[in-house]
Amino acid sequence: MKFFQAWLNIRRSPYQAIAAILVMLLTFLVISFFTFILFGSSKVVSYFESKPQVTAFFRNEAKQADINLLEDSLRSTKKVASVKFVSKQDALKIYREQNKNDPLLLDLVTADILPASLEIATIKIEDLSSISDTLKVSPIVSEVIFQKDVVSTLTSWTNALRRIGIALVVLLLLVSIFIMVTVIGIKISQKREDIEIMRLIGATNWYIRWPFIFEGIFYGVSGAFLGWIIASAAIWYSTPFLSSFLRGIPILPFSPIFLLELLGGELLLAIILGIISSFLAVLRYLK
Amino acid sequence: MIKLDKVSKKFGTGVFGLSNITLSVDKGEFVFLVGPTGSGKTTIFRLIIKEITPSEGTITVDNWDIGKLPHNKVPHLRKKIGVIFQDLKLLLDRTVFENILLPLEVSGVRAQEAQKKVNEVLEKVSITAHKDKFPIQLSGGELQRVAIARALILSPDILLADEPTGNLDSKTSWEIVKLLEDINEKGTTVIMATHNAEIMKTLSKRVIGLDKGHLVKDDKKQKEDKK
């Protein structure tokens, strides 16, 4: 009956209900997206971190013999776990594989413009810098790419994103609480007379409060659920595009378990939000 | 059952709503509370259900000193007392059935049992035919019956009726009074505020008179004084 009363309250003032649900939807949409971004970027970072390697790109004029010599000298340091030579032809193969959906990009590129490279993984991460120093002085090496730099750049980006995300979410949470308090407050004011009558015939405070608290929970839960659906649908829809953008870093698609955990967390947060804001409204308007 | 001891009620404006009222009503009595508009009849009812608190004096209902009654016990008090309000105080967005159901709902009575009870009471006040109508679809007499039904639904020990015949024609008024008399005969204490002299005379019950907040007449007291 309390649920029914709450449902009646919602149905009889659809615009207020829509406002409350929309602001909740927006909040949870942003929460979902930032969770995706932070989860994805932390995976990207750990992907790079799990590969302690440097890549040395060779100049075009580098001879195979010199390259072999360099490879042997690296092996002799006993610091390296593996050395993999990627020839111009291999590089083209990799490039073709990465861009197989884009014929225009394929036509333009031949093996000649791609550099041959050496991918060196060390046993310990600390040895990466000494190896890269050795490579940098070699005359046949044009460029050394150091995964550590990639990782630190990514990490600082991720941290910045996390801060922005948290600030935005906190702001939206506050906005949604205030809007919910206002909407429920209006409802309480509209029903002031009815509430007075109920009190006079012996209704307890909680009997009067419950429908409003259920109403708050309803707004929160519907907003969270819709926000989650939209965010999940968007990520599912853009998975093919994002996967090719991420070039083989295994993030997508997100597992259904991860998405369900996110939904669970959001619903819990929504219920808490609903209770907090309707309770604030009840305290403020129901004396 | 109900005792007012030297009760005064001063309103915010400084006007005395009631001054120094002492009266008691026994269990099972039928009492008329009479007096012109503004004499304090409604104020007495509001004091008894603790909608307002007295400025002075004590009120006891069924051995509860309601001045000392904690806030969270007030709903218990109100469930013991059925009130037919002067302005009825029906919920306009609920049907007759739902209005009468409300006190049971508030008390947490289970749905099936509650519905059975409502149907019984509807029968008793003879408005079963209107149970699915909304208050605005009913006539004055019918609305009065709905208010009575709602006041009776929890089988209260006390029934306070505030001018239940106020706006009704005399035939309908009599039907309502007969209904209240029936209820009284089954053991409920009834206090009825009215200024319908005809009804008072015909029924010859105890009459308590008020004027400008003062007690001006109490049959029982006068009888006792004569003894």
Concise overview:
Chain A has 287 residues and is an alpha+beta fold.
Question: Can you tell me about this structure?
Answer:
The complex is a heterodimer of chains A (287) and B (227). Chain A has 287 residues and is of the alpha+beta class. Chain A has two domains: 2-48 and 152-285, no CATH class; 52-147, 2-Layer Sandwich (Alpha-Beta Plaits), CATH 3.30.70. Chain A is 74% helix and 9% strand. Chain A has helices spanning 2-12, 14-49, 64-76, 88-98, 103-108, 128-137, 147-190, 192-200, 205-246, 256-285, and strands at 53-58, 80-86, 117-122, 141-146. The longest helix of chain A is centred in the middle third of the chain and has 44 residues, at 147-190. The mean pLDDT of chain A is 81. Chain B has 227 residues and is α/β, with parallel strands linked by helices. Chain B has a single domain (2-226), classed as Rossmann fold. Chain B is built from eight helices and ten strands. Chain B has helices at 41-48, 74-80, 96-106, 111-124, 140-152, 170-185, 197-203, 219-226; strands at residues 2-10, 16-25, 30-34, 56-61, 64-65, 81-84, 158-162, 189-194, 206-211, 214-218. In chain B, the strands form two sheets. In chain B, strands 6-7-8-3-9-10 form a six-stranded mixed beta sheet, with helices on both faces. A four-stranded antiparallel beta sheet of chain B has the order 2-1-4-5, covered by helices on one side. In chain B, a hairpin with a 2-residue loop joins β4 (56-61) and β5 (64-65). At the A-B interface, α8 of A face α2 and α3 of B.
